[in-house]
Amino acid sequence: MQPLVEIRSLTKTFAGKRRNPDVLAVDTIDLNIMKNEFITILGPSGCGKSTLLRIVAGLEEKSSGNIYLDQQEIHGPSSDRGMVFQAYSLFPWLNVQQNIQFGLKNKKMEPKRRNEIARDYIELVGLGGFESHYPKQLSGGMQQRVAIARALANDPEVLLMDEPFGALDNQTRLLMQELLLDVWEKTKKTVLFITHDVEESIFLANRVLVMTARPGRIKADIPIEIEHPRSYHLKVDPRFLNYKKQLTELIREETLKVMRE
Amino acid sequence: MKNGLAGKHIAEQASPLLDPGMSNQKKRKRRRWIEPRGSISLQLYLALSVISFVLMLAGWSALTYTGVIDPLFLPSPSRIIQSGFKLFTEFHFIGDILATVLRVFEGFILALILGVILGLLIGTFKVVEAFFEPMISFIRYMPVSAFIPLFILWIGVGDSEKVLVIFFGSIFSIILMVAVEVGTVRSELLEASFTLGSTPFGVLRSVILPASMPGIMEIARLVLGWAWTYIVVAELVASSSGIGHVIIESQRMLRTSNIIFGILTIGILGLITDLVLKLIIRKMFPWSYGR
Ligand SMILES: Nc1ncnc2c1ncn2[C@@H]1O[C@H](COP(=O)(O)OP(=O)(O)OP(=O)(O)O)[C@@H](O)[C@H]1O
Ligand SMILES: [Mg+2]
Fold first, then answer.
1. How far apart are the CA of B132 and the centre of ligand 2, in A?
2. Which of the residues A59, A132, A191, B193 has the least number of beta carbons within 10 Å of its own beta carbon?
3. Phi/psi of residue A63, each to 5°?
4. Tens digits of per-residue pLDDT, A181-199?
C-alpha cells in the first residue's frame, strides 16, 4: 500500500544570523506515514520536532529533500494539511462557531452546510452550549478543543499537532488525551503529533518516533501494539509500562546529550 | 514602595494569629491607591476628577473677581459665559462651529480611509514597505503648519485648503501607526489561516484587518485629537469662518473672553468626539475589551 505522506531525506539548515554559525535542525529524515496512522514524535527540546512539522505543514521552507502527499509533492501551506498549535491560535474576534467555520468559508461552502458541519464538530469535542463564546471566554483546554475542531472541520488529509496540550495543566491534559483518542477512534484521521511527554506519546499512538538531539534524526520507530478503544486504565497496564520503560531510556540518552553540550 | 510591599507581606503572614479580619483588610484597602496599577473605587475616581475642575475654577475666580488680573488678559468665568451666549445669539457662532467640524471630519475621514489602506499594505507586504516607508517617515517630520502658505498658493484659501491641512496633518501618522499595528498581529493567526486554506489576500482581509481593527480605531481616536489642533492653525490664517476665524477676529478687537470661549469650545468638541469614539470602540469589539 502507498503511504499517505512520504518524507524523503528531508534536511533543514537555518542560516546563522550575524556571525552565528548555521544551525542544522533536521538531518536527512525519511518517513512514511500510512493512512489512518496516529504517529507521535518524541524528542528532547530543540531537536527539530517543530521544524519538521512546520515543513510538512508548508509553513517553513525545507533546505533539501522531498515531501509527498498522495504522491504529489507539496509546496507551501494548504488546507489538506491541518495544524493545531500549542496555544493562542484561535481568531479572537470570531466566536467558537465562526472559528470552526473559518476554513469552510475559505472553501466557499454554503452557510447551511457550514453550520451543520460546525455543529457536528462542536458536538464531537464536547463544546455544545459554547457556540457563541469568544476565545477569551474559554479556558485553555476548551480553546484547544476548538482548535482541534477547527482543523478537523476542514477535513484535512493529515492533522499536524505541535504539542497541542503542552500549555495545559496536568489534569486537563490527561482529559484532553482521552478526548483526542476518542475523536481519533471515531474519525480515524491520520495524525502527526509532537510531544515531550512519554506517556502521552504511547497512550495516543500507533507508532512512536524518537528523535535524536540536534541535528534531529529518527533514532527509533516503535509500533505500539495495543488495541483500540483505549481507556486511561491502560496507563497501568504492563504492556504500557514496558513501552514507557523503553522510551524513557531512549529519550534520556538524547536529553543527556543535550545537557552535555 | 519596597518597604510597602515588604510590610504587606508581614501583615498578611502575621494577621491570622494577631488579629484576624478587619485590621488586615483595612490596611490592604488603604494601600490600594499607591499600588502600581491598583484600582480605586468609581466614587473616588469621579470625586478626584471633579475636584481638579473645581480647583481650577476656584483659582481662576480668585484671580479675576478680585481684580488681581486685568480682564483684558483674563476675564472672569461669568464674563466668558456671557460672551459665549452673545456669540451664539448675535454672531451665529453655531455656523462657525459647523464649518470647523465639517472641515475636520472631511479631512480626517479621507486621511483615515487612505491611511488605513496604505498602512495595511505596508504592514503586510515588505515590497510596499520598502517603497513607501522611508519617504513617509521623512515627510512626517515636516510640520504641517509650515505647509499652509504652500497650500494657499496651490489651491487658494477656501474650505478645501483647510481640509487639505487636516488630511496632510493626519495621514502620515495614520499610515505609520497602522503599519506598526499590523506588525503586532500574532504570526500563529496568519499561519493557522494559511493551513485553513486562506490565500495571501484572504489573510489580509479576514485575519490582518479584523485583528488590527481595534488598534486602528484607537489610532483614529488619537489622531483625531491632533486634527483639532491642526484645524485651528489652518483657520487662523486667511479664513472667513470657523472657530479659529472667530478667535483671530476677537484678538483684533481685544475680545479676550471670546478667544477663551472659542478655545473652550474646541476642547469640549474634542472631548465629546473622543468619548463617543471610545464608546463605539468598546461596543464594536467586545472580543477585545472586557469579558
Ligand atoms: N526560524 C529559525 N531561525 C533560526 N533557527 C531556528 C529557527 N527555528 C528553529 N531554529 C533552531 O532549530 C532548532 C530546532 O528547533 P525546533 O523549534 O524545531 O525544536 P523543537 O524540537 O520543536 O524544540 P521544543 O521541544 O523546544 O519545541 C533549534 O536549535 C532552534 O534554535
Ligand atoms: Mg517545538
1. 36
2. A132
3. -90, -45
4. 999 999 999 999 999 999 9
Sequence ranges of chain A with CATH classification 3.40.50.300: 5-80+158-260
pLDDT, tens digit, 9 for 90 and up, residues B107-133:
999 999 999 999 999 999 999 999 999
* pLDDT 10s digits, A31-59: 999 999 999 999 999 999 999 999 999 99
Look at residue B13 in the predicted model and tell me its pLDDT.
43
CATH of domain A5-80+158-260: 3.40.50.300
DSSP conformation letters of A115-174: HHHHHHHHHHTT-TT-TT--GGGS-HHHHHHHHHHHHHHT--SEEEEESTTTTS-HHHHH
Residue with cell 488586615: B24
How far is the C-alpha of A65 from the C-alpha of A73, rounded, in Å?
A: 11
B188 CB neighbours in chain A (<8 A) are 85, 88-89
Let me know how long chain A is. Answer: 261
Distance from CA of A103 to the nearest CA of B (A): 5
ipTM of the complex: 0.93
**Ligand 1 site residues, Cβ closer than 6 angstroms:** A 14, 23, 25, 43, 45-51, 214
Q: At what angle do helices B256-284 and B243-252 cross, to 10 degrees?
A: 160
| Buried b / exposed e along B118-143 (16+ C-beta atoms within 10 A) | bbbbbbbeeeebeebbeebeeeeeee
Test the A interface: residue of B187, B190, B195 with most A CBs within 10 Å: B195
Q: Where along chain B do its domains lie?
A: 91-284
CA distance B83 to B76: 11
In this structure, whether the domain defined by B91-284 belongs to CATH 3.30.565.10 is answered with no
By three-state DSSP, how is residue B41 classified? coil
